[in-house]
Amino acid sequence: MSPHRIEFATSRATEFVDVTDRIREAVRRSGLRDGRVHLQSLHTTLGIAVNENEPLLHRDFESMLERLAPTGAGYEHDDFTRRFDIPLDEPVNGHAHCRQLLLSAFATLLVEDGQLLLGRWQSVFAVELDGPRHRQLALQLDGDFARLRDEVPEALVEIELSRQLMVDPDAVASPMRRLVEAGGKRLRPKLVQLTAAIGPRNDPLRAAELAAAVELLHNATLVHDDYVDESTYRRGRPTVASEEGPERAIAVGDFYFAKATRLIAEMGNAGVTSAVAEALEAICASQIDDVALRGAYPGDRESYLRVVRGKTASLFAAACASGALLSEAAPEVVGALRRYGDLLGIAFQMADDMVDFSPSSGKPVGQDVRQRVLSLPLIYAAEDRVVGPEVRRLLAGTLGDAEVGRVTELVTSCEALPRVRKEAQALVEDAVRELESIALDGLRPTLVGLARSAVDRNS
Amino acid sequence: MSVQVQSLDRELDRLEGLWSDGLSETYRAYLDNVGRFAPEKQPKLALAAALIEVGLRLQGLGGRPAPPTTLLMGDLCLARGSRLLADNAPLAVQVAFARAIESMSSAAASEQPTPATRPLLASSLGAGS
After folding, report:
1. Domain of B89?
2. pLDDT score recorded for residue A152
3. Which of A228, A252, A276 sits opposite B71 (nearest CB)?
4. Hey, is the C-beta of A269 within 8 angstroms of any chain B C-beta?
């Protein structure tokens, strides 16, 4: 059951207010697929009618009501000398009450396949009988609701990704298809889809197009990253650079960087284009910082946060902001979601760092250490009073299997991992707090759940 | 000219070395192709085109691949050029630039000769006119 209110002000004594579109909007936003809308007037001089929206007809109705219950026709209700507890502003409106008796205070409308079921000429009216006034209609919707709110239609993104890859030249599409089909958490597209359902312009197909473009962009950056980091495997498969060489990796990354930015630009929303372009620039700038910091490996917390904010969090923030912008959400909603994405992105990266030290993750332990990838647990271990000196000494030398094994042993033996976990969880709670002050149309639990699950994971 | 370059200071952050190492000449070459845009947009659009040309060259697209750190600098040039286009260029120009990079990179991936960069980007600046 989904409750709503429709509020409006009338400007005349008798007035037909067409509320059809507002009911349709309530149905759309609720996700009701098949069921009923129960409509109830919350006033004794406001009726409900289903009829044709034709101004001359409204004058006929008005005349009919006037004939059946004329104004000032000596209603007993208007004789205040015979009534008790009369408020000072009690109107003379016996005629309006009688007219409402001729109409109805209730209506039940049917919804089929997500659409309000009305005949070609039918509209739904709130009939003001004693205006002008501020009025309210109550709505309750029941029936079968689409699960769109709880379950992001991920299939739409997968279809869109396949569709885009299908039209590309094989030399670039094949390596990208292998990377995309190898999986990944698809958190960024999920954030786009969720936040694109918040504003008044919720279009799941457009959201899926944007989500797929963001995912392509993310994968394009990974193709170049893997070459830079000399990674041989990603998502359990050989990287593009290791399998097809750096020339191909550079070209594939460039192609999908360009294609994704074009797809986003072609959506025609300047705010979305700028949000993603800024994120991409932040990613590239922080990649340079990341590589530069490897000279002083493992670095410090401040440098780590600066790099992670650009490298990971910027695209999380852009995903959240761009989805909200696409749906034309209010600026304060876009701002709060951007901050939510930023905090979630940092927390996500911290959780990712911890996975490198987990033997049950399904990935080789200590891979980040081996590749000298920036890692907060390693920074904290290097700062630890007990294990720090040995960690720093090992990291200063060549990192073979024995050294990597010893470093991971030292990291897991000290307080580094619990400290990072606590910090990541605190960031998630900060992210959740960003959602408290904004209207999210029922999506808060999903966004909160997504944030918490992004940190409480083992892979 | 100096006023125009001053207005680009922020956009040259981290790229100062490139500016003195050929980016400034490339930028000046593209100034000839931006006359149809509003005066305040012209330097930014010429810089966007120059960054994309220099970025692709640094990466070694279609040629000898750049070493990792140079690739990252090329990526930053591309990303900044793209952001400058997003903030300053009409949609048709943004799309034309993206398509130009797509055609060059797909040719490089297919080991086909890559189209010459400058004429392609210069004509992208004229898209939609």
Report:
1. 2-125
2. 59
3. A228
4. no
Specify the pLDDT at position A459.
Answer: 60
Q: What is the mean pLDDT of residues A307-322?
A: 98
Topology (CATH level 3) of domain A153-455: Farnesyl Diphosphate Synthase (1.10.600)
Per-residue DSSP letter, A80: G
Q: Does B127 touch chain A (CB under 8 A)?
A: no
Tokens 């619990």, located at residue = A418
Cβ-Cβ contacts under 8 Å, A254 against chain B: 56, 59, 61, 78, 101, 104-105, 108
Its ipTM equals 0.96
- Condensed to tens digits (0 to 9), the pLDDT of residues A428-452 reads 999 999 999 998 878 888 999 999 9
Task: Name which of B67, B81, B66 is nearest B15 in CA terms.
Answer: B81
Q: Is A229 exposed, middle or buried (0-12, 13-18, 19+ CB in 10 A)?
A: buried
CA–CA gap between residue A72 and residue A92 (Å, rounded):
8
Q: Do A288 and B104 touch (CB under 8 A)?
A: no
Mean pLDDT of B103-119: 96
Chain A residues touching B121 at Cβ < 8 A = none
Counted domains in chain B: 1
The alpha carbon of A142 is separated from its chain's Cα centroid by a whole number of angstroms, namely: 24
Which one of A167, A223, A281, A290 makes the best mutation probe of the B interface by having the most chain B beta carbons within 10 Å? A281
Instruction: Give the list of residues 6+ apart from residue A141 with CB closer than 8 angstroms, or none.
Output: A1, A2, A4, A26, A27, A30, A32, A35, A36, A37, A38, A111
Residue A183 neighbours by CB distance under 10 Å: 10
A43 reaches B (C-beta below 8 A): no
Tell me the C-alpha to C-alpha distance, in Å, between residue A215 and each of A233, A359, B119.
19, 28, 31
Between positions 71 and 110 of B, the ones with CB within 8 A of A are 71-73, 75-76, 78-80, 82-83, 85-87, 91, 94-95, 97-102, 104-106, 108-110
Assign a CATH topology to domain A2-145: Jelly Rolls (2.60.120)
Least confident of A109-118, A192-201, A239-248: A109-118
Q: Where are the domains of chain A?
A: 2-145, 153-455
| Contact (CB, 8 A) for B47 and B18 | no
Give the separation between CA A98 and CA A64, rounded to whole angstroms: 13
**How many Cβ atoms are within 10 Å of A372's Cβ, its own excluded?**
18
Please state the pTM of the whole predicted model.
Answer: 0.74
**Type of residue found at A63:** S
The helix (run of H) or strand (run of E) holding residue A378 is helix A376-383
DSSP letter string, A175-237:
HHHHHHHT----HHHHHHHHHTTTSS---HHHHHHHHHHHHHHHHHHHHHHHHHTT--EETTE
Contact B98 A259 (CB under 8 A): yes
Nearest to A227 among B62, B68, B102 (CB): B68
